[in-house]
Amino acid sequence: MGSFIKPGQRKAAAFGISFDTDRDGTSAPAVIDGEKQSNLLHQRNRLPVTKYQREILYLLERHSCTVLVGETGCGKTTQVPQMLLEAGWAAGGRSIACTQPRRVAAITVATRVAEEQGCTLGREVGYKIRFEDVSTPGVTKLKYCTDGSLLREMMDDPLLTAYSVIMVDEAHERSLSTDLLLGLLRKVIAQRPDLRILISSASLEAEKVAAFLDARTVKATRKRDRNASSGPGPMGDALVTATNGPDGDPADLATPAILSVEGRLHPVQVHYLEEPCADYVVTAVETTVELHREGIPGDILIFLTGQEECERAVALLEEEAGRLRRVGGKNALRIMPLPLFAGLPAAQQMLALEAAPRNYRKVVAATNVAETSLTLEGVTFVIDACHVKQRTYNPRTGLEALLVAPISQASAQQRAGRAGRIRPGHCLRLCTQEAFSKLQQATVPEMQRAELAGTVLQLKALGIDNMMRFHWLAPPPAEAMVRALELLHSLGALDDDARLSKPLGCQMAELPLEPRLAASLLAAGRFGCGQEIATICAMLSVHSVWASGGGQRRAIEEAQAKFSTAEGDLVTYLNVWKAWEDSGRNRKWAERNMLSQRVLLRAADIRGQLLYHLRRLGMEPISCENEVAAVCKAITAGLFSYATRLEGTIYESVDADYSGTNSYSLVRGTGGQAVRLRIHKSSVLWRVRPSMLVFHTVQQGPSGWHEMQDVTAIQPEWLPEIAPHMFQSVTRPRPQPGGT
DNA sequence: GAGCACTGC
């Protein structure tokens, strides 16, 4: 078992863990206590950000862009937009937008603010996310929206003329859409001197964002002002570090300001392992048991990387819980282990989020959901395995993979903060302090580790043609950009001059789908199966429709078998959909067939939206009824870049009855990189060995194999027929027996 | 031979 040290401290006495400031629980410095107040106004006034009202309004008046550095819980998301509202920034027919990276956040914050403003949600204060526009044109002054939906709005109104202020919240998360939004806003402010941009970010990113938005560099080509020094701002004691000239200098407007607001998190003491651990799941469980024995109250949150690890940790904790029950007395505190990951059905997620029953200490084994999307109250201890499962894109092979990687220090800090929401807490990192100091400071922005085809298509649709000259907050690798352009060209979205093609490229950009699926959907008209492809695209846009979650694997497999077809997973989804429709979208039917009604309803929403878009583009989607080949051809029209052929069977194991793995390779090649593909276990074609297939997603597991998910069997002669520019001759699978 | 980080339009 690992023992922990705290920086600057001697080794602890018991269990290797020291809790010097904890027992009295009162060592928190000048923190506002959690006393309940019924008066909303009073509560608002107590939020740290409220003290900075004057400064914020002053800076907004004088600077096009202001970066707000605010720690968690300082109230910026709810209070700052209200300050602007009350200061009259939404007068004159324009409104204030505040973007959020996630839908739930947009809804909950808007609801809260409407309450504080004493108005009906959807009137003066509203929100807008996909499928839900709870705002009233001409009435709504403050709108919370997802950054993705604001990007969509920009397609119709590139200068965002409907708004006087755009607040980009949680910009430090550096999601694809926030980075894209910031790049675009940088261009917008050059043409809209009346527009104000507020960016809320963590301290690490603030300088970078401010430098990026400096208007003096916007028009200048390539040159960046190195003299933008941080000096004391005009507001005296406030932490204003505006990179501005003297008062009244017209340069003020052009230079971004930075304002720091302290949070109201309680201090969290950090501990490190003295020696590295071999298995962080085991160490996390052992550490949990020791903490529990220490008897300090508070729930425990363990950060792991995936479903499997969470379930393993819970299983180990259950064993320990049993042991503790036998040892402890009748009234002893018990532990209640619970898993938490995004794929978990809502009811089980709630268990992890709700307070534990009396006499129980909740121990939640969670993935990254608990770092950003979901907040657990009552957590006093965070045990952090310091790893994360991350999406990475390899531009050489053109494939994305999910890989477990060490987290960044910024991410670790965020996770630690989860222990200090209600009282001072502890964070136990399952690595040595030395190892921790070698972690990268910040997480690599998504922009630099994702496939960019969709992003490039969106930019093209906004009239930005020169990708290489676009100012990115984090420039993506040139190779990834080239790959994106190649893919869009092969799909027909770009012409030979890399300009958005008409009408195809414009139509693709219009659809809320990744480019490959958009291409399939638009090609479906040609094959007379628009209805079917809309269904398939919708099913691919949602979480798995199969009701996952705990020990029902067999039942799911049996249910799945009822709908599966030789054509593959996508046609299987089609069968599921048709059967669900025939049942009258019956919830009971869905339950009997191990399907999630909630996910199916969401798919129905998306399907409806896709059909609406097709009609708006002047295409009436028709159904091909039983022509499965037409459906598969339309699928191929979008996914041909992911066509693979069977190479043979590889025998890696020494077991006599081991049947080997059917190995596939990309028809178009992988740029000299060796890539071994196989069908993922979840596929209905797993036991089958179609000689050629297209897949929708692939992920690289720890085995080194790229595993293809959502596969569709195709005929080799379809490729040159459907994508003649990519496949000139009839491509047949090479007859090649096993590999090594 | 057994599995799916997380968002978003």
From TrEMBL:
Class of the enzyme per the UniProt entry, highest EC level: hydrolase
One Gene Ontology MF term: RNA binding
Domain (Helicase C-terminal) ranges: 284-463
Keywords associated with the record: ATP-binding, Helicase, Hydrolase, Nucleotide-binding
EC number: 3.6.4.13
Coiled-coil ranges per UniProt: none
Keyword ATP-binding found: yes
UniProt KW Hydrolase keyword: yes
Protein name (record): RNA helicase
